[in-house]
Protein 1
Amino acid sequence: MSSRPPIVTILGHVDHGKTSLLDFIRKSSVAAKEHGGITQHIGAYQIEIPQESKSRESEANREIPRQARDDFAVSRKITFIDTPGHVAFEKMRSRGAKVADIAVLVVAADDGIMPQTIEAIKHIQEAKVPLIVAVNKIDLPGINLKVQLEKIKKQLSDREILAEEYGGDVPIVPLSAKTGEGVDKLLETILLVAELNEIKADPNTAVAGVVIEANLDKFKGPVATILVRSGTLKKGDEILIGGVKSKIRGLFDFSGKSVTLVGPSTPVEVLGLEVVPAVGAVLGEEPKAEEDLRQQQTQSLVDKLKQGPAKTLKVIIKADKQGSLEAIQASLEKFNEESQVINFIALGTGDIGEENIKMAATVGAIVIGFNVKVTPTTQKLAENEHVLIRTYNIIYELLEDVEEVVNTLLEVGQLEEVLGKANIIAEFPYGKSDRVAGCRMIGGIIAKGQRIRVIREGTLIGETKLKALRKVKEEVNKVEKGNDCGMLFDPPVDFQTGDVIESFRVI
Ligand code: GDP
C-alpha cells in the first residue's frame, strides 16, 4: 500500500462559496499557472502542491511521524470532486461506495450555519468521513471575525462537531475564496488530515473505482468520469461497470489530455463504454435492479423516439457558468440522438431576465435555470405570459424533469412494462356481489398487489388491482406461467370469460 492523494468533496449552503473555493484552488494551482489556466472538462480535478510551502507549515508537519512525512513528500496531490457534494454522497452511499476521503464544509462567515449546512453535516456524519470546516468570506467588510468564528463554533458544537478549541478534532480554517487568504492553510490542513487518516491504496491491485458523472455524448457515445480508488486503469482494459463489460478506448485526464493509464485517486474520463452507467456505479459490480430499470427507461425513451413524428420541446437555458451550461446541453443532447426532440432556442449565463421570458413567450419555449436566480418581476412577467420557469441546482434533477416532460410531450403517456399475462377461463361468484376470475397463466408472473388490465379482443375494458390470489384452495402471493388460479380484483372490474388480463407496472 502506498499513499495516494486524498479525495475531497466540498459541501455547504448555497452561496456560501463552494464554487468560488473550487475555482480559486484550481486556478491558483501550479499546473494552471504554468499552462496559463486549465479548463476543467470533468467534475473533478487534481492539484499538486509545491514542496516549498511545506516548510512554512512546520506546525502541521511536527505532528506527522517521520515515515509518513516521507510518503507525504512524494504525494502532495489533492483530488477535488465538484459534483454537488450531497449528490455525490447520496448516490454513492446508497451503493455503499465511498467516494470522498475528506469533506470540506464551507460556512460563510457572515451567515453562519444555514439549512443546507445542517443537511451537509448529516451527510458527512452518516458517511463518517473526516471533516474540515472552512469559514469563508472573511474578507467581507464589516465582519467581526472573532465574534463570527465563536458563533459558528458554537453552532457546530450544537451539532456535535467539535472544533479543536472545543476539545474536538475538527479543524476550522478561516479563509476567503475571493482574495485567497487562508486557502493555502486549507490545503495544508487537508494534507494533514489525509496523513492522519492514512489514505492509502495499492496501485498494483485490481482496479476499483466509481462513476461520478456519466452521459451520452452525441459524438463520443457513452462517456463516464471514473474516480479510480485503487489499482491502475489502462487504455485497452476490459472493465465491468453497472454489470456491462466494456473495453476502454480512451482515457482523458481532467484537463482533457489523453492519458494511457491512471492510478489511485485520479479522476478520468473514459470512452468506449457500451452503455451509460449510473452515477455511483462501481467498477466490477454486478448490475443492480435499479440500474437495469434506469437503462430500460432510457432505452424505452430512445425506442419511442424512433417512432412517430417527433415533437419538439423548445428550451431557453440559463446557467451560472459556461461550464455548467455546456454540461447541461451535452446531457440534454442525448434526447436528440434519434430525432430532434429538444430545440435549444437560447443558451446563456447569468440570471433569468425579462428578455428570456419575452423570447420564451414568443416562440413557446420553457425556461430552465441552473444555479441562477429569478427576480420577482421576472417571475411575475412569466406568470402573465404563461411561461414555465424551472430552476435547479442539481443537474440530474434537471435531467429527470426534462425526461419526464419529453415523455409527456411525445404522448407516450406512461412507460409500462407487462409483467404477466393470463386468460380468464371461468368465473365464480364471491361474497355478496364480488366475482373471482378463474385464470390460466400464459406468461410471466402475476402477483398480489400488481396493477391489472382487462383486455377483450384487443380493447381495454378496465384497470384494477389484484387483491387476492388462490391456487386451488391455497392463498398464494404469485403465480407463474402454466398455473391455474383464482383472482379477486379490487376495485371490481367488468371481466368475462375469454378476456385476457395483464399485470403491469409503470416505470
Ligand atoms: P456556492 O453556491 O456555494 O457555490 O457559492 P458561490 O461560489 O457561487 O458564491 C456565492 C457568492 O458569494 C458569489 O457571488 C461569490 O462571488 C461570493 N463569494 C464566494 N466566496 C467569497 C469570498 O470569500 N468573499 C466574498 N466577498 N464573496 C465571496
Protein 2
Amino acid sequence: MSEQKLSGEVYYPSFEHLGEPHVRERGELQREAENDYEGFWARHAEELDWFEPWEKVLDDSQAPFYKWFTGAKTNIVYNCVDRHVLTPRRNKLALIWEGEDGEFRSLSYFALKREVCKFANILKSLGVEKGDRVTLYMGRIPELVLGMLACARIGAIHSVVYGGFSVEALHERLEDSQSKVLIVADGAYQRGKIVPLKDIADEALQRAATVQSVLVVKRTGQEVNMEQGRDLWFHDLMMLPIATSQCNLEVMDAEDPLFMLYTSGTTGKPKAILHTHGGYMVGTYTTLKYVFDMQDQDRYWCAADPGWITGHSYIVYGPLLNGATSFMYEGAPTYPYPNRWWQMVERYGITILYTAPTAIRGLMRFGDAWAERHDLSTLRLLGSVGEPINPEAWKWYHRVIGRERCPIMDTWWQTETGMFMITPIPSDPLKPGSGGKPFPGLQMDIVNEEGKPVGADEEGYLIIKTPWPAMLRTIYGDPDRYVEQYWKRFEGMYMTGDSARRDADGYYWVIGRVDDVIKVSGYRLGTAEIESALVSHPAVSEAAAIGLPHDVKGNVIHAFVILKTGVEVHEHFEDELKRHVGHEMGPIAKPQAIEFVDSLPKTRSGKIMRRVLRARALGEDPGNLATLED
Ligand code: PRX
C-alpha cells in the first residue's frame, strides 16, 4: 500500500482482496524499465517462445519506422496456442462463449489448436498464402477468433471488419486491403433480431472485385444467397479430408505483419493500422499480465467486440498469450433483461471484467437491483476503456459491481498503440476519472501548440516520446500518411490526437479528441466518413457532421445537410437520410438529428468550422468569427 499523500479523491488498494499480484508495487517495474528500457522489454519477450533470437531489441535507424526484435523468428499463434498444449494447460479452457440465445461453447487449449489448424487448412485450400489479406465480417462468435488465429498461423494478414458496419464501410475495407478471401457469418444475433451479414456482404461484394472466395459460417440459419463458384459453407469444408487437425505453422519474422485494422482519422478514408507478430505480441502479453494481473485461475471477460482493437489485443491475443481463460458473449448487455451480464458473471465465475464507460452508464440507468440480486463475489478486478469515464459512472461501477473491493483499471490506449499506454496497475492508488500514469518505461507528455510541455493541470496535446513494442508500424499502403498523421505535428513525438492534462501527482486526465474523430458509445468514427455517406444520397449536395455530448453514449452525431437545388423535402426525409447512412456505414454512424441548412460556415481555405456548428446546435455563442468566409 502506498504511503504517498495524493490530492483529490483517492481509492487505495486492499491486498486482502487482491491477493498476491505479479508486482506489489509499481516502482518495481518502473525502476527496472527506466534503468534499461530495452532490457525491460527483452526480459518479457524472453518469457515467450522464439524460433530464432533477435539481434536488436529496438531498431530506430529509420525512425519513425521503428522496428522491434529485429532478426527474430516467431509466430504469435505458437505462443497463443501451441506452447500451452505442451504444458498442463493443454486441458485448460482457452475460450468460453455464450450466445445471445443461450447457446454455450467452450474450447480447451488442445481443442483450440485442433480447430485453428482445421480452419487454417481450409484457408490454404482456398489458395491463401503468407502475406495475403483475409477479411472477416462476423458477430461475436468463436469462429471469428478461430479465423483470426488461422490466418496468423499461415502468415496471412487478417482484417476484421466490425459486424456493426454496413455495405459501403465493408466495401471500402475489402477494396483497400485487396482481400482474397472474405469470411462472413450468415447473420448475427443482436437484441433477439438477426443482422443479415451475408446479405450486406453480397451487396458490398458487388462493388469489390478482388475477393475470390467467400467462406460462410452458419450462425443464425436463415436462408442466404450462395453464389456458385464463390461462396462456400464453412461447415461443409470442415467435413472434408483437407480439414485435418495438423497444420504447419509459418515461421514469421518478428516484423512481419499480423493484422491490419481500419480506424478513423482526421480526414478522408479510414486508414489500415498495421501490427506485427513480434512487438505486438510482447506488448499485449506484458501489459495484460501486469494491468489485469493475469493469474492461472482467472476467468477473464473483455466485453468489447473482436472487431475493434480492444478485442484483438485483449479478447484474443493478450489473454491467449498469457494462457488465460477468456470469456466472450455474443449479444446485447440488456437482452433479454438488464441483468444479463451479471447473470453470466455469476454463472461462469468471472474474476476480471473489462468494458467501456458507455456500457456502464447504460446499465447504471436500470438501477442497482439488477446487479444486486447476483453473486458477484468472484470479481477481483474491473476495467474501463474507450473514452473518459465520468466519476459518477466510475463510482457506480466500483460500488455496485465491484462491491467496493475491486480496483478499476481505466486504460487509455488506441488502435495505433496496440497495447495499454496510460493505465493503473492493481496496487496503485486510483482517482475516479483518471487513468493514472503511463505504463512503466513509457515517456509521455502534454504539450502546447509549440510542442513545449505545459504545467500541472494545464490542458494540451497528449504525445508519446518513446517508441513501444506494440506500436503501429505504418498505415498499410500509405507510409507517407503514417508520417504525416502521427509524426509531423511535433518533431520526434507521436501525436495521439487527444487532449489531456496532468495533475500535480502526475496523474493523467484525458479530455477527448482534438481532431475530427467522434467517439459514439466508445466507437471511433470520422466525420469525413459520415459526411461521405450523407453525400452519397442523390438528394444531398453537402454535409457536415459533429459530435454532441450525450449522457449514455458519450457523444451522438448531429449532421447539417445542404440539399441539391430543386429537391423537395418530404415529411419523412430526415428518417430516410438516417436510414441511408445506416445502410452505407452501419447503425452506429446514424446521426441522431439532421438539420437542413442553406450554407455551411467555412474558413477562407474551405474547411468547415465545426466549432461554429457545435455552438449553433448547442445554442451557444460561436465566439470569434473573424476567419469565417461568409
Ligand atoms: O480518445 C481516446 C479514447 O479512444 C481513442 C482511441 O480509440 P480507438 O482507436 O478506437 O481505441 C479504443 C480502445 C483502445 C483515444 O484516442 N480513449 C481510449 N481509452 C480511453 C480513451 N479516452 C479516455 N480514457 C480512456 N481510458
